């Protein structure tokens, strides 16, 4: 009782400090701030305090006497300043000048009050965290739930503020969104990750419609903007982003268009959309890699089928290593899978052994040819070349968005994913780009593209891989592989709402915690007495992950987690009326890599020429991105594609319409999962 009276008396005597402390405490509670931020606010008052003390020390003696600023040596004046301010405040209040009283005491009272408020807030949180605070044992859980709501509201307010959260922070980190809550990570207003984390493997897990693609889009833009900035500063190689969207269909085309707009705003000059607008040529691979890739693309079994696999390998090798040079297109390759053709070719070079192998494998050659014919029909023209130079390479663009029809035709998507990663792995050997490969909706192709193999291969090539899956199970076929994938995600794991976060929670590890039991005092409230014991608790609260809203994500990195609200990137809208005929730089920008000619137009100074730096400042005023049908039309006119990709007879496209879905989302609310 005496203690309580003393505390109340002290609070009354230091009324201004008490008032500011209460305000600071309430504000921290209301905003859900960690105490660190309250103390940081107190630190911001330091200039005011220094100015005040400086004025007191330097004030001329005459003026001091006139204004009653107090006597004494300068050091005495400084020491006595808080007391004199306090006494002056009461005097001014007594004379009916409350505003002057507030001004007189503000300099010492505001920082002291904020620090006191922050200390009280830290103590309150500690009591609640350890289960010792509140009226009942349920209070800590209710307090935590309320704090979560406050923290989410604060993060959403920051997201909604115009111009908040630019893509790159001042230190060059990639800002993903507004931080909601951090545990064992540095707490700040925004959640940002260093560029280096995007150069390491990452995993994204979240149920359908929770915002995986939206998160990835922001990470891609951040990778591009930060990578280009480093490239311009001469501290890194030029970035290359390759996205394999394994969903397919109209929704993938929409995301592709959004990606292009967002990446353009981030500084990328060109985003190639495969296979709609640009192609890649498998035939650019050197012969030894070509044989491996071609054999990988055909599914083959074990046991009795292994014999057939060996025969096929021998025949494919003969076709690829034919004396006239490696094949340049699928048509060329299929022509070679003919016993007579091969026999004549090898006979002319005097290779009798090869001719005898060809003669003995005549029947098998027919089968191999049939299988490859079916494969090329499946793969489509996107990986082929006409033999006239069409079929680009990854070097042709800053970003490649590859649409794989994983939902409609799984086998096709699997084969395409396999071929594209092989092509990229070969391209990575050149070592002139910093490559990020992202496989969105990985589970669609996981059967033929074992992710851990991709990871291991990528690591040796200096290539970073991001994969997204709808669940923990979608990451790989077996539990062993899933653990391997998650454990090697050195860039962190992004967890959106998912019903099974426990494996990732296990990876995140534990933190020290205190658990308190409280004594029940009969019918009344719980007593203050009890027992506490120190132990450990998981860093990642799985129930919180199960409750996340669309657009909220938990970033797990090492032994810490940060919950954040993603700031969605929308990119500039297309302008109505600027059709495919816009031509010029814009036209080239849109169709890189679709053919050697188009690539040349897109890079007048070569892929690494000075033009590459121009993108950094954005492309203000340049031609906008048109919807895909318009671009496809421009391809069909500019690129004479054999193999059925172009649409020479197609009617000229009308004026493109802008993608207004994001505006509608903002206006009427987004789809909620
Ligand atoms: N950060 C966000 N802010 C606002 N809305 C969002 C955010 N993230 C996602 N959404 C909304 O949720 C919808 C689905 O998002 P998105 O396509 O990114 O989810 P997804 O997990 O990739 O879905 P799917 O599994 O179907 O591919 C978006 O169209 C958008 O309306
Ligand atoms: Mg998606």
From TrEMBL:
Residues 612-621 have a biased composition (Gly residues). The keyword Metal-binding does not apply. The chain crosses the membrane at residues 38-62, 74-93, 99-123. Residues 649-658 have a biased composition (Pro residues). Residues 505-530, 598-673 are annotated as: Disordered. Keywords: Membrane, Transmembrane, Transmembrane helix. This is Uncharacterized protein.
């Amino acid at each position: 009782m005496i203690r309580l009276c003393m505390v109340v008396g002290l609070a009354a005597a230091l009324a201004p400090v008490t008032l500011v402390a209460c305000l600071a405490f309430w504000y921290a509670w209301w905003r859900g701030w960690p105490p660190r931020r309250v103390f940081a606010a107190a630190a911001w008052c330091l200039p005011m305090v220094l100015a005040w003390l400086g004025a007191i020390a330097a004030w001329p003696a005459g003026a001091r006497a006139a204004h009653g600023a107090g006597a004494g040596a300068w050091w005495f004046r400084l020491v006595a300043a808080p007391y004199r301010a306090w006494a002056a405040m009461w005097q001014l209040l007594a004379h009916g000048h409350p505003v002057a009283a507030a001004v007189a005491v503000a300099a010492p009272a505001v920082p002291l009050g904020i620090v006191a408020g922050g200390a009280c807030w830290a103590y309150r949180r500690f009591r609640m965290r350890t289960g010792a605070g509140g009226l009942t044992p349920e209070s800590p859980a209710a307090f935590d739930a309320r704090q979560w709501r406050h923290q989410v509201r604060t993060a959403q307010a920051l997201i909604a503020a115009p111009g908040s959260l630019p893509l790159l922070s001042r230190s060059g980190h990639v800002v993903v969104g507004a931080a909601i809550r951090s545990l064992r990570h540095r707490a700040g207003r925004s959640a940002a990750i260093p560029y280096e984390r995007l150069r390491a493997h990452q995993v994204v897990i979240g149920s359908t419609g929770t915002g995986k693609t939206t998160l990835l889009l922001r990470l891609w833009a951040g990778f591009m903007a930060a990578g280009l900035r480093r490239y311009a500063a001469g501290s890194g190689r030029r970035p290359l982003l390759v996205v394999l969207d394994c969903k397919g269909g109209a929704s993938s085309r929409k995301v592709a268009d959004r990606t292009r707009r967002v990446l353009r705003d981030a500084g990328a000059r060109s985003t190639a959309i495969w296979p709609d607008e640009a192609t890649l040529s498998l035939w650019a691979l050197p012969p030894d890699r070509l044989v491996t890739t071609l054999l990988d693309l055909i599914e083959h079994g074990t046991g009795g089928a292994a014999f057939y696999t060996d025969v096929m390998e021998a025949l494919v090798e003969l076709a690829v290593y034919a004396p006239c040079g490696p094949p340049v297109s699928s048509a060329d390759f299929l022509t070679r899978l003919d016993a007579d053709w091969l026999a004549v070719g090898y006979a002319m070079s005097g290779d009798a052994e090869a001719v005898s192998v060809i003669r003995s494998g005549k029947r098998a050659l027919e089968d191999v040819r049939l299988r490859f014919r079916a494969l090329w029909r499946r793969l489509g023209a996107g990986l082929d070349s006409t033999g006239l130079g069409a079929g680009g390479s990854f070097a042709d663009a800053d970003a490649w968005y590859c649409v794989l029809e994983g939902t409609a035709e799984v086998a096709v998507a699997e084969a395409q994913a396999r071929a594209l990663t092989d092509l990229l792995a070969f391209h990575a050997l050149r070592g002139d780009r910093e490559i990020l490969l992202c496989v969105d909706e990985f589970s669609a192709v996981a059967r033929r593209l074992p992710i851990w193999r991709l990871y291991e291969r990528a690591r040796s090539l200096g290539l970073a891989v991001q994969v997204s899956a709808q669940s923990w199970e979608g990451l790989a076929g077996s539990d062993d592989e899933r653990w391997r994938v998650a454990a090697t995600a050195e860039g962190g794991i992004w967890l959106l709402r998912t019903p099974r976060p426990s494996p990732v929670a296990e990876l995140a590890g534990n933190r020290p915690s205190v658990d308190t039991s409280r004594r029940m005092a009969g019918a009344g409230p719980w007593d203050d007495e009890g027992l506490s014991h120190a132990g450990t608790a998981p860093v990642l609260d799985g129930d919180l992950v199960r409750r996340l809203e669309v657009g909220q994500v938990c970033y797990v990195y090492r032994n810490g987690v940060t919950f954040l609200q993603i700031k969605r990137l929308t990119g500039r809208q297309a302008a109505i009326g600027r059709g495919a005929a816009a031509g010029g730089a814009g036209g080239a920008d849109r169709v890189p890599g679709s053919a050697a000619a188009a690539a040349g137009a897109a890079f007048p100074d070569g892929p690494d020429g000075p033009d590459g730096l121009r993108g950094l400042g954005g492309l203000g005023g340049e031609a906008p991105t048109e919807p895909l049908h318009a671009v496809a039309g421009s391809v069909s006119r500019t690129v004479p594609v054999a193999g059925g990709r172009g649409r020479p007879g197609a009617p000229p496209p009308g004026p493109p319409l802008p993608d207004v879905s994001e505006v509608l989302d903002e206006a009427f609310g987004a789809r909620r999962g």
